[in-house]
Structure formats: structure tokens, C-alpha cells
Design a protein that fits this description.
Layout: H1 4-8, E1 13-14, E2 23-24, E3 27-32, H2 39-50, E4 53-56, H3 58-70, H4 78-85, E5 90-92, E6 101-103, E7 106-107, H5 115-125, H6 128-143, E8 149-154, H7 157-161, E9 167-172, H8 175-185, H9 191-205, E10 219-222, H10 228-243
Parallel strand pairs: 3-8, 3-9, 4-8, 9-10
Antiparallel strand pairs: 1-2, 5-6, 6-7
Length: 254
């Protein structure tokens, strides 16, 4: 189980030794949401606008599922999945303008979005030791990012990974809207197949974590009737209110 005290350290001022100058840890913006809610694209754009880093936590589970499939491992076999996780050489960019994912020396940025990986990812994500290990990785990535803030998005960021983050958002939308959005993103499958896959993924993942209900203190942004830019603005408004100061990003807006 993730220790909330470890996560809280990512939002506090710390010093490596009594004589050192204090190091300001990155501000965490935690964003949860179901598939098709737009959380990845919105989170990435929010990070650009605020000049923050961007961490796609779902990519780690997808990369692990990809590796398991490459090795011919049954993702329904928890022990076999744990064995793959014990030898998981994973790296991800936190630069929203230069996003990539690697397993060892292999760039898997596109490969982890393949339908076969999407079908397998819930199998690896439900293994508790895997989740605990990956959560430690997320905390390390944020702490070592060297950035003034990081937008972290996924399924249980506001409740498990960073329950003490100063900004916590649940980004959601009506099921039919989410299905339509995902269908536009995936052009290799028909709309019915995409919608069915989305609903099955939601059903499988909901057995692991509740990503459809906002926990206490989490702000809800419902993008059902919002376009992309208005959704981004709504999330930035939450950041501004939560932190109590206007947020400005890089001079070029990226």
C-alpha cells in the first residue's frame, strides 16, 4: 500500500542536510479520469501552459503489458506479470513538448497504444505488488524532475499516488461523449468496436480503483459540453484557485 506520507513529501519544502539551502519540491497537479475523458491531451496542454512537467502514469502499465506480451506472458497470471515487472527497464519523458516512452533501448511510444496492449493492460494493473512498485517509480520521477511543477494524470492519482497534492482534479464526461472521442482518436477500428473496448476497459479497471467518483477535496471538471480549449481553461482555473495565485507559463505559451 502506498504511504501517503511519502507522497506528501512531493509537495513540501525539504533540505538534504541541515546546512543546505532548502529545495522546493515540484507542485503536483493530480488529474484522474476514465478513458476518453481527454485527461491525457488536456493534462499535456495544461503542463505546456503552466511550464510544468507532464507524467502519463498509464503509460507505465501499458509498457509493462507490452513487455509481457512481447515475452509471451499470460497477463492473467499474476505471478508471471510480477516476474516481468521485476525486470522492467522503463523510462519516460516528462517534457510535454517531447513525449516518449522506452523499455530498455526500445521506443514503445506508439506500440503501447496498440489494441492488443489496451486489452492486456488491466491484467497487469490489477497486480498489487506491481502497482506499489510503479507508484514508487512515479514519486521518484516527480521528485527528480527538476521542474517547478508536474501534472500527473491517471486513474488513482488523486486518491492513492498523490492524495495530498495541492491540486486534485477528476476530469470526466458522459459515456457516449467519451466513446465518440476515443473513436475519433482510433481510426483503425469502427466506432462500435472502440466503444465496446472502452466500456470493457472501464469495467475491468473499476475493479481495481474507483476513477468515476471524486474523493473529498477533489474538484470535478465535466467536459461533456466543453471543447478542448475550454476544458484546458477549466483545469487551469482549478489550479489557480487551489494554489491561490495566478498561474503563468513559459513566455511562448508552451
Amino acid at each position: 500500500m502506498t504511504d501517503p506520507n511519502d507522497v506528501a513529501a512531493a509537495s513540501r519544502v525539504s533540505a538534504s542536510s541541515p546546512g543546505d539551502a532548502p529545495v522546493i519540491a515540484p507542485v503536483l497537479v493530480a488529474i484522474d479520469g476514465p478513458a476518453g475523458s481527454g485527461k491525457s491531451s488536456v493534462s499535456k496542454q495544461v503542463a505546456r501552459r503552466l511550464d510544468y512537467g507532464y507524467l502519463d502514469t498509464g503509460a507505465a502499465y501499458r509498457a509493462l503489458a507490452w513487455l509481457a506480451l512481447e515475452r509471451g506472458v499470460d497477463t492473467a497470471d499474476e505471478q508471471a506479470v510480477k516476474g516481468v515487472a521485476d525486470d522492467f527497464d522503463y523510462a519516460i519523458s516528462l517534457d510535454p513538448g517531447d513525449y516518449w516512452v522506452r523499455v530498455g533501448v526500445t521506443d514503445v511510444t506508439d506500440a503501447i497504444r496498440e489494441p492488443r496492449v489496451t486489452e492486456a493492460v488491466s491484467g497487469v494493473a490489477r497486480v498489487r505488488p506491481v502497482r506499489e512498485s510503479v507508484n514508487r517509480l512515479f514519486r521518484a520521477l516527480v521528485a527528480e524532475s527538476g521542474r517547478r511543477g508536474v501534472v500527473v494524470e491517471g486513474r488513482d492519482i488523486t486518491t492513492v499516488v498523490a492524495p495530498d497534492a495541492p491540486v486534485r482534479v477528476l476530469l470526466t464526461a458522459a459515456p457516449e461523449v467519451r466513446a465518440a472521442r476515443r473513436s475519433r482518436e482510433i481510426t483503425t477500428q469502427d466506432a462500435a468496436a472502440v466503444a465496446d473496448a472502452l466500456h470493457r476497459r472501464d469495467a475491468a479497471d473499476s475493479t481495481v480503483v474507483d476513477f468515476l467518483t471524486a474523493a473529498d477535496g477533489v474538484s470535478v471538471v465535466d467536459s461533456t459540453d466543453l471543447d478542448f480549449e475550454r476544458t484546458v481553461e477549466a483545469v487551469i482555473d482549478v489550479v489557480t484557485v487551489s494554489l491561490g495565485t495566478p498561474q503563468t507559463g513559459a513566455p511562448d505559451g508552451r
